[in-house]
Specification:
The complex is a heterodimer. By secondary structure, chain A is mostly helical. Helix content of chain A is 74%, strand content 1%. The chains are: A mainly alpha, B alpha/beta. The interface between A and B is large, with 37 and 49 residues.
């Protein structure tokens, strides 16, 4: 049906405040929410605003941040990856098994373990993506399958047991804390986020991820093959699950087939709270980092306030839904401002 | 040209004086026709931004008659049907149905009033059974539970009425199109609909199935059901219609008995749209060589073969009725949909095209008819939309070069006079005309040798249309081959060197500029639907 009149030409010139509002709505919205939550707990919860507490939070968000950064790629293309939790478990047992092999020198074992972790994760992700695209299946189902497969494989590889006894230098690196407040694993997470941010924002590949999430058919008819990029997004998600497995090993020093249960849901929650649209095409990886922070800050803050363990999930669940509801109003307001 | 010799002008064809004098000569199926109107439209107008879809339309449909509604693409038939179905509401004028004012706000209201519209795309729930579909609105119930036995028994009765001998428990998804059509009609019967509106019911049926449908319609007619029948197959309307109403450009042309009208007469009534000469046709642009050539393009096994060619600097139009295979052909040639055979040449070179990626790599472009759904990244910026066709051009080592990208986009926005405060605004906020220009810009950024446009001016207002025509000519002047699919004949006539006329999936004929004539083109368009020649 015929389109409306020429809206573009009627648009008013942007004012400074207009621009400021737009930026705060689009990019900084979640960051402001995080700030408010931090200030709230600093004022109300005892011990919240201490460096020990922040250190604890940084340690705790590392794994989820790494997982969620890869998840952001998949969700931006309009898919979902439910398998990252159990792929992480598989990678921890693969990595731990290699590391405890005393035939290798410690540094070689660590390096090999890292490659194996990342490689295993990437292969799982690539299989996810390939199956989805080859048979045009919903990623929800395919990755649900991979969740179970990887979990089973983790049991097979580990012979259903927990693997301990990682090399000393590795454990020491995991316990390293810089300037009294920045744990090494948090810095790894920040590094992953920065790489993800760079890829999404400055590379041709990143442009395709957004374009495919916005309108896959238009990308195809513009002379590209969207399947390649979608498979790549899943591969990246698997790859970050492998990196997250290394972080897990650094933090807990054990490889376990029952690691990572439910992690995929935390990762998805972080991405969504961070403002990435489940429909794809809209969002940012910095938002994902902030989303992961919000989840952990809420959890820690409530604990310090003396909230019962049973209350915590209720609050966090509410926040997840609230984030999506707010996103609905935010995008509506943004669209009104664009006119 | 306006067919005054055949009927009266719209003003004279006022509904009131229509009924009685014509009652005798209705012919048709030999039914004595009651003179009372069941549906009356009085000065009905419906406006969409930039288009007056229906303009002061008045006519009557008599109780118990078979009334045929005709018109070219875009004449306003669909709009009229959608008004009756309660999907749109008229801005002006009134509709009377069964003696009462009729102004439905939803399909459900239309339905309860007694008007049943069977749309071209059927609206059945394919995973439910026939019986469930038939009685969906009135399931026989017992304390909140469905009484399946009663439901199925009632369904058998209804199916018998339309001559369908299938178990009512069959899933609709297992039926053929013809059978689904009959289920839709049975559904109308179930609710004692007084007026049955059939939009192109035979478009997908075989001739045997069509005969069967007519037999059933005939039987319904004997029972006093009024039908409003829309079809592209001009031959068949004689077996269902008593009277015919012709629309043209949203205006009522004539309502008169079918008896005595020949098919060429009807075609003459339907054409005669005034051609505004946009004055864009340029003699000075030289046509040379071949930009795009297609030989033996076949979309399906056993289907017709399509061959044509477009010269450099030439604008070739593709005309045809909606559903005549125009869009399908260009999509297959572009690799967007699969084809079974055919060779394609670009710039004289034979090329292998299996996907849009191949097509683009070899220098083709396609601006689809569904601009928003398939052409644009609505929630991305103007610049991002433009460069998507060739990101290599604005990147080094896989990294985007924003400076180059912005410069390229700025240049095209300026050249094509795209109205936007900045290249960073989301394309969603653009008007239809500007969105179409963004589509053109994105292809120009790639630099194709031959460009295909499917309905380039759909949903665009008049001023912007002229700009698009000028743009097409500028592209032709750069030596590109231009192929334009359009439902608007006047548009093709004013801009094209040649027009290929599609009819039922094949090229029924090619008309060159010297012989452009709406009558001729329309006759060709109807050719494969049973009209031989015309004049």
């Amino acid at each position: 049906m015929p389109e409306g009149t020429d809206r573009a030409s009627e648009r008013k010139p942007n004012t400074f405040w207009d621009n400021l509002l737009r930026i705060s709505m689009r990019e900084a919205g979640v960051a402001i929410a995080l700030l408010v939550i931090v200030l709230f707990f600093s004022a109300t919860a005892p011990y919240f605003a201490t460096s020990e507490n922040f250190l604890k939070i940084f340690v705790q968000i590392a794994i989820n941040t790494v997982l969620a950064s890869g998840m952001t790629f998949v969700i931006l293309t309009g898919g979902i990856d439910l398998s990252v939790g159990s792929v992480l478990a598989l990678c921890t047992v693969v990595g731990a098994t290699i590391m405890i092999d005393d035939r290798l020198p410690a540094w070689a074992a660590i390096l090999l373990a890292f490659i194996a972790c990342v490689g295993t994760g990437a292969i799982c992700g690539a299989v996810n993506g390939w199956v989805c695209e080859k048979w045009k299946l919903p990623s929800f189902i395919v990755t649900l399958g991979m969740l179970n497969i990887a979990s089973g494989l983790a049991r097979v590889v580990s012979n259903n047991s927990t693997i301990t006894g990682l090399p000393r230098p590795f454990v020491e690196f995991g316990n390293l804390i810089l300037w009294g407040v920045l744990p090494s694993i948090f810095l790894i997470a920040i590094g992953v986020i920065l790489i993800g941010w760079f890829v999404l924002r400055f590379t041709v590949f990143g442009r395709f991820i957004f374009a495919i999430g916005t309108n896959e058919e238009a990308v195809r008819l513009s002379g590209h093959n969207p399947r390649v990029y979608k498979i790549a997004a899943f591969t990246i998600s698997g790859l970050t699950a492998g990196v997250a497995a290394m972080v897990y090993l650094l933090r807990l020093n054990i490889g376990s087939p029952i690691a990572g249960i439910g992690y995929e849901l935390n990762a998805i929650a972080a991405v969504i709270i961070g403002g990435t649209s489940l429909a794809g095409g809209k969002g940012s990886i910095i938002g994902t980092l902030v989303g992961a922070c919000i989840l952990q800050v809420l959890s820690t803050g409530l604990q310090l306030l003396g909230a019962e363990d049973n209350v915590k999930p209720i609050v966090i669940g509410t926040v997840i839904v609230l984030a999506v509801v707010l996103d609905f109003y935010r995008s509506r307001l943004l669209r009104m401002m664009e006119r | 040209m306006h067919g005054e010799d055949l009927g009266r002008s719209p003003a004279q064809a006022a509904p009131s004086e229509e009924a009685s004098p014509l009652a005798g000569d209705a012919g048709g199926l030999g039914q004595p026709r009651p003179a009372e109107p069941i549906l009356r439209l009085q000065s009905v107008s419906k406006r969409f931004p930039g288009v007056l879809a229906l303009n002061d339309v008045s006519f009557d449909v008599m109780r118990g008659e078979g009334h045929v509604l005709l018109g070219e693409n875009g004449a306003g038939k669909s709009t009229l049907i959608n008004l009756l179905a309660g999907i749109f509401q008229p801005e002006e004028g009134s509709i009377w149905f069964d003696g009462k004012p009729y102004r439905p706000n939803s399909p459900l209201e239309a339905f309860s009033a007694g008007i049943r519209v069977v749309h071209q795309e059927l609206n059945l729930l394919s995973n439910l059974t026939i019986a469930e579909n038939l009685l969906f609105e009135h399931l026989p119930r017992w304390r909140g539970l469905v009484r399946f036995r009663d439901m199925n028994a009632r369904a058998v009765e209804l199916l018998a009425e339309v001559g369908l001998d299938i178990a009512p428990t069959t899933l609709v998804s297992r039926l053929g199109v013809a059978q689904m059509q009959l289920v839709e009609i049975a559904k109308a019967l179930c609710h004692d609909s007084k007026l049955l509106v059939l939009d192109e019911p035979t478009a997908t049926l075989t001739s045997k199935e069509v005969d069967r449908l007519f037999e059933i319609l005939h039987r319904l007619k004997l029972k006093g059901v009024t039908t409003l029948y829309i079809s592209h197959r001009l031959q068949e309307i004689y077996s269902v219609g008593d009277r015919v109403t012709v629309l043209r450009d949203g205006q009522h042309v004539v309502t008169r008995p079918l008896a005595g009208l020949t098919v060429p007469d009807i075609v003459r009534l339907m054409v005669g749209r005034t051609i505004e000469d946009h004055g864009v046709f340029r003699q000075d642009v030289p046509v040379s060589g071949e930009a795009l050539g297609v030989s033996g393009l076949k979309l399906a096994e056993g289907g017709p073969e399509i061959s044509f060619s477009v010269g450099k600097g030439e604008i070739v139009g593709i005309a045809g009725l909606v559903g005549s295979g125009r869009t399908e052909a260009v999509r297959a040639l572009f690799g967007a949909d699969p084809k079974v055979a055919g060779t394609i040449r670009v710039d004289g070179q034979e090329v292998e095209i299996a996907s849009p990626k191949d097509a683009v790599a070899h220098g083709l472009s396609l601006a689809t008819e569904d601009r928003k759904g398939q052409g644009l990244l609505l929630d991305m910026s103007c610049a991002e939309n433009i460069t998507i066709t060739d990101l290599l051009k604005v990147s080094q080592f896989g990294l985007m070069n924003r400076t180059e990208e912005n410069a390229a986009a700025e240049g095209l926005v300026r050249d094509l006079r795209i109205k936007t405060p900045s290249i960073h605004h989301l394309v969603r906020t653009f008007s239809g005309g500007n969105q179409q220009k963004v589509v053109v810009a994105k292809w120009l950024f790639r630099g194709p040798k031959a460009m295909i446009f499917d309905e380039p001016t759909r949903g665009i207002d008049v001023g912007a249309k002229a700009e698009i025509y000028e743009l097409l000519w500028n592209l032709a002047a750069q030596g590109k081959g231009i192929l334009v699919v359009s439902s608007e004949l006047p548009e093709l006539i004013s801009i094209c060197h040649r027009i290929l006329v599609f009819s039922k999936g094949r090229i029924a004929g090619t008309v060159t500029r010297a012989e452009f004539d709406q009558n001729k083109i329309l006759s060709l368009a109807y050719k494969e639907y049973g009209l031989a020649g015309g004049n």
